[in-house]
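Supplementary notes for students who missed Thursday's class. We covered one full example, reproduced here. Read the sequence, then the structure, then the short commentary at the end.
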Amino acid sequence: MFLDHLSVINYKSLRQVELTFSPKINCFFGNNGMGKTNLLDAVYYLSFCKSHTNIVDSQNIRHGEDFFVIHGFYNMDGKQEEIYCGLKRKQKKQFKRNKKEYERLSDHIGFIPLVMISPSDASLIQGGSDERRKFMDMVISQYDRPYLDALIRYNKALQQRNALLKQSYGTDETLFDIWEEQMDLAGKEIFEKRSAFIEEFTPEFQEYYNRIGREQEKVSLNYESHLQHGDLFSMLKASREKDRIIGFTRKGVHKDDLNMELDNFPIKRIGSQGQNKTYLIALKLAQFNFLRKTSRKIPLLLLDDIFDKLDAHRVEQIIELVAEDTFGQIFITDTNREHLNEILSGTEHDYKIFYVNEGEVEEQKEN
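Structure (token representation):
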């Protein structure tokens, strides 16, 4: 599977872009703020129906314009798949596959598996538990549709319970029972699948870290959930009165966390910049390999400015890894053309290089 052609109009800083890609390596260089990351974000959007960075869709429309369009043509084992997304201000987003609009955007998730590695991944280590839950949910949802459905059911029930907690006393307690039972059923499914995922995923992550970081440190991932200590329905019932006082639900899988450790200590506390970056890159490469095996498709790999703050050895190891045949189509950005030349000098694969400047993208013809 690879993205053959991409058309973008008015997406972030990109005014109008028409590009045909290499099925293997595509490199984008240019100064910071010129649109390289926005181009990768457009590719990301076609996989996840949303931006990697902006939560509010209307913020992705180019300043001064009224709409954006992202249009991708994919080659999947010789068959063309057309994915279209269009948004006008104050109107509903259109998302189509082969000209047929999706009834639910969640039905598209997993169709085009993708992994993006970017500087914003630092929030996985430095941010709150919601960032790490999102990571688990993003991976599992791409290969397990029932999991995504369980997440939707759980979040709906959680929203309803929180609404009840904010109401004055006298609310029919059976309403709490109904929504807490829904949270319990969906929560068990989410907990079991997150537990199984982390157990299977951790050895792959450790292997990638060792390959990039010369096995100098021991890394681990530890899943933490209230459901490890009892059934959710009983916890919710027991905590109703305290939850009423504070106005929200304190127990459940929406409070789960993923402890990221280096030599048995939180990497957030002891990790250097290089160690943190190696940890995150290993995490994402393991995500790639996990999706490749579970979805039976080779995901797209997006590498956004990842070589900064890494020593020469780690850069060399990453380049060797992504050059392996297990990786499919790759998109790489860097401000330094020399970095890209170094990456490409050792590859026998097909590649294309593009120069990005002020939202305009031009393919560079090699001599």
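Commentary. The mean pLDDT is 91. Residues 173-213 form the longest helix (41 residues). If anything here is unclear, bring it to office hours.
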